[in-house]
Write a structure and sequence with these properties.
Layout lengths: L2 H32 L14 H32 L4 H10 L4 H35 L7 H32 L4 H28 L2 E3 L4 H12 L7 E4 L10 E4 L6 E5 H6 L2 H16 L2 H24 L2 H6 L9 H16 L3 H22 L2 H14 L8 H7 L5 H9 L2
Parallel strand pairs: 2-4
Antiparallel strand pairs: 1-2, 3-4
The structure holds zinc ion.
The site of zinc ion has 4 residues, from helix 9 and helix 13.
Amino acid sequence: MTAALFTAVFVAALGVSLAAKLWLAYRQTRFVAGHRAEVPPAFADRIALAAHQKAADYTVARTRFGVIETGVEALLLLALTLAGGLAVLVGWTASLGLGWLGTDLALIVAVALVAGIIGLPFSYVNTFGIEAKFGFNRTTRALWLADIAKGVAVAAVLGLPLTALVLWLMRTSGSYWWLWAWLAWIAFQFLVLALYPTVIAPLFNKFSPLPEGPARSAIEALLARCGFANKGLFVMDGSRRSSHGNAFFTGFGRAKRIVFFDTLLDRLAPDEIEAVLAHELGHFRLHHVLKRMAWSAALALFFLALLAMLASAPWFYEGLGVPVSPERPGVALILFFLALPVFTFMLGPLSSLYSRRHEFEADAFAARNASATALVHALVKLYEDNASTLTPDPVYSAVYDSHPPAALRIARLRTT
Ligand SMILES: [Zn+2]
């Protein structure tokens, strides 16, 4: 491989992924707008035309906004790499006299700050423009800013030590550094998983025990029926920020918690909440969570080994517009994570396919252990409340959606 050839491969991959994203967005907006006039027959008795049209408009607005964001991200990537932005930052951080580790950390922080600052207006318009326009936003500007400040603080406290450790391993632990870095990454995943429910999440939201009542009784009966040790049922004040509803598991082992957004509890009947939880339990019982963690660990090992190979290849640096810097592991690290998504975009459909199979399996688990009808009713309410389109473009959905389209999911539940 030569630097010029790698530049050509990179530009071609970026062009292909950009063209694919634009084509998919075009398909999605055309398909959704084309099905806006009529509620699909399977939902006609439960969803009003106005709600269906709101979902269509919301989907189109978000897809169009996503196109602008995609374009800006591509320009930023080109500015940092081929146009020489990263080369300037590499030179500037070297001039600070911080020692090799401090110099590389400064480089990574500088790139993260540039990307973060460019992302801010998008987050702002998404929250106070689109989400507000469709009646979902409940966050204030003060809360939005406080969330960003806390997010940066958490990223710094957790991310900087990990980055420093990986850089140190890259530079000092020989040609198998990537194996050590992989072990560090896995330990870090467990640390975050352990800290999340009790330390990180409470920085952003209030968690209170799920009150006694018919919903709690139904949930406890379901957990007992499925042989699931209950270490805590919590309600989260999701309504502080948004009216979107959700339920999730956090933590692992003995520290596992089940968390419901208050918005979900307000909206669903007890048997519907039970069915939604049964679906989530299905993900655990069928080992989906473990399988996903194993997959991401395997991918991380592969990518770290790839990075180890690229970090010693001059064409990798020169091909992306950066001076060859084998003595600065931070340069290879940041370059790798900037360029990687251009090449992994093509894997999106595979990961979506895998995830959608799990969703069908979890739905079938819920149908066996709770009520399929209640789950259908819950899903219809959630689709309506979240203004999720019932008529996504099939190709767009196959590439991006981690969940099967509503019509397929519900059709399958109705036949179980
Ligand atoms: Zn699921």
